[in-house]
Write a structure and sequence with these properties.
This protein is mainly α. Helices cover about 65% and strands about 10% of the residues. The chain has a single domain, classed as Death Domain, Fas. Strand 1 and strand 2 form a beta hairpin. Helix 4 runs antiparallel to helix 5. It is globular and about 40 Å long.
C-alpha cells in the first residue's frame, strides 16, 4: 500500500482497534483478502481488538494495485454509520496529508519587479 495511505490509516489506528467490528468489515473485503487471511482473522482465540489489529496489518501489506485503501474505506462506509464516520476521518486525513505534501513543493521566490511575491513549483 502507498505510504501516505498507510499513514492515514495508522493515524487512526487506536480508534479503529477500539471501535471497528473486524468481522463485519472483513465480509466486505472478500475480493481483497485470501481465504488464509480471513481464517487468520476469524480465529476464535482472537478478541475483537486482536482481530482488528490483524485485519489492519494484512490490509497495510497488500499491494497498491489491489487498491486496499480504497476497498477498506468502501467497506467501512458500507458497514454502519460509526464505521462510515471512521472512513470519512481516514479519508480526510489522507487528503490533508496528500495536499500538504503537494503544498510543500511550492516555495516562495524573490519579489518581482512590481513587488509581487512569485511562487515556483519545485520538482
Amino acid at each position: 500500500m502507498d505510504k501516505l495511505k498507510q499513514e492515514a490509516i495508522k493515524s487512526h489506528y487506536a480508534k479503529l482497534v477500539e471501535c471497528m467490528d473486524p468481522l463485519r468489515v472483513m465480509d466486505h473485503l472478500a475480493k481483497l483478502l485470501s481465504l488464509e487471511d480471513m481464517e487468520l482473522i476469524r480465529k476464535s482465540q482472537f478478541i475483537s481488538q486482536e482481530r482488528t489489529r490483524e485485519l489492519i496489518t494484512i490490509i497495510l501489506r497488500k499491494n497498491e494495485e489491489l487498491r486496499p485503501f480504497e476497498l477498506l474505506i468502501k467497506a467501512l462506509e458500507e458497514t454502519d454509520i460509526n464505521h462510515e464516520t471512521m472512513a470519512n476521518t481516514i479519508l480526510n486525513t489522507y487528503k490533508h496529508d496528500n495536499g500538504a505534501t503537494l503544498f510543500e513543493k511550492v516555495s516562495k521566490t524573490l519579489l518581482s519587479d512590481t513587488g509581487e511575491m512569485k511562487y515556483a513549483l519545485q520538482t
